[in-house]
Design goal:
It is built from 17 helices and 19 strands. It is α+β, with helices and mostly antiparallel strands.
Length: about 575
Amino acid sequence: MSDGRLPVRRRWLRWSIGIVLTLLVLAIGWVTVRGIGAVSDLQQVSTSANQLKTAIGEGDLDRASTLSARIAHHAESAHDLTSDPVWHAFGVVPWLGPNFSAVSDVAAIADDVASDALVPVLDAAGEIDLASLGLVNGAVDLAPFAAVEPSLADADDTLSTAEDRALRIDADATLPPLADAVRQMRSAVTEAATVVGALHGASALLPSMLGAEGPRNYVVAMQNNAELRSSGGIIGAIALLHAENGRISLVQQGSAMDFPPLAEALPLSESTVALFEDRPGRYLQNVTNIPDFTEAAPVIAARWTQRYGTAVDGVIAVDAVVTEHLLAATGPLSFGPFTATKDDVVGLLLSQVYTLFPDPVAQDQIFAKAAGVLFSAALTTADPRDLVGALATSAEEDRIRIWSAHDDEEEILAASALGGAIPRDDATSHVGVLLNDTTGAKMDFYTDATIATAVGTCDGEPTTQVRVTWTNNAPADAGTSLPPYVTGDGTYGVTPGMVRTLIMVYGPEDATPSFVDRDGGGDGNTQTAVLGARSAVQQEVLLAPGESATITVEFQGGGAGNRLTEVEHTPMIRTPEISREELRCGS
């Protein structure tokens, strides 16, 4: 006979379940309240960060200091709210866990950046006008840079670490609104790391490179994107800059025609010879075939010294699209019979000039006049802030590359995007698409590319796939309607109007090609080479107007299959469309 009470074991089980449920409800309530507070704090950080960027750009350091304190307060609060044991416990819950971990990581990154990077940047802003880098009346005041270099070095280290941590957050594993926020934060941290890294590089390099310790001479190689080379285009115009005590002057101009081919090639790497034979070592026009600017630049310097006898302290390579950005700072400029604006200068220099001036000598004279007028206007009439902005935009688009003959400077440059070296993989894997014209003409004014990447697993192996579609968008009657200098007139065996191009694809470090295909017809005639720790494949493509070709390469091993994969590519007149696709194994 029962007294109506539950057995002791069942009562304990019910009480235990009740206690667990109560604790769970309390925990959910706890993280909900703290989560709402953390999100609010992070929204304040984002809003204030945008305002801080504007204040620094305008030189309003008082407001910048107030905003910096506000950012630090909200970032610390968000970090505190998302770093307690209960919050971390929810980070291991299936499906929901990555969302909690992502918010915690974002808050921690924001706190570190606010506490360890903002103050050094504001200190630097107090010494130097960051928007103009101290450029006044065509000269740079070099004195303040040495003073701010140590603090900027600390900020650079903090932001580099923050960028690496941000890249490791798996946004794809979080809910869509949070994923968007993570990607936005990642983009902001990357932008900040790039800007502060550039400022640190400037503080470390500008004093010596601009002649504070003695005069410097730099060769400037101007690349023509209408005839593509790995780093942008064929070298057409070339000049010598002199720097002394922060003041820069243009002292000599020339063209590639002033440099006849060498009977014996200058030394080249095995990979360059495998891909392009010895032509980059014999023809100045082909030096920028070389994929790595740290190899190409010394060859350019050697050619200048051989021709003119001037010792060279460094090489700067720019492409024609840089003129568009510079004219945005200078306003319209006149040279020869032309008046160019930012909207038409690229078409004028890379297309119209060949129609109006069929003689290459006359073309070179126009290019020289354009370079001289632009250089003078940039240093004398452009607003320094607009000029620095134009150069920054050009650098972001990989249209400026710099090499120094001085080892200590080159070590810093080679590790930066400005150095033009084949990148090294870390948290992010890199793949590349490099384009080199073999038409012997200026038909790349009409070419376009799209690049797609995909990562995943093929045949049980981590795989990175790169797909390049190359299109000749020249008019159907290009062979007869375009000038012979533009089409090549068949000089190098290409029917006028057609485009012949070497398309090179390199993969992540330590990965090897497992599949190569062109338009579904197999790998065709493929060259291979090794670029440091990377494997590269190259095919030559011949296209008539309106035709396209698609090359697909899959890499396996090493860094293949990394979801964080970035694409490097030859700077073109029109930047290629780059997309990420779902992996469909070609193999």
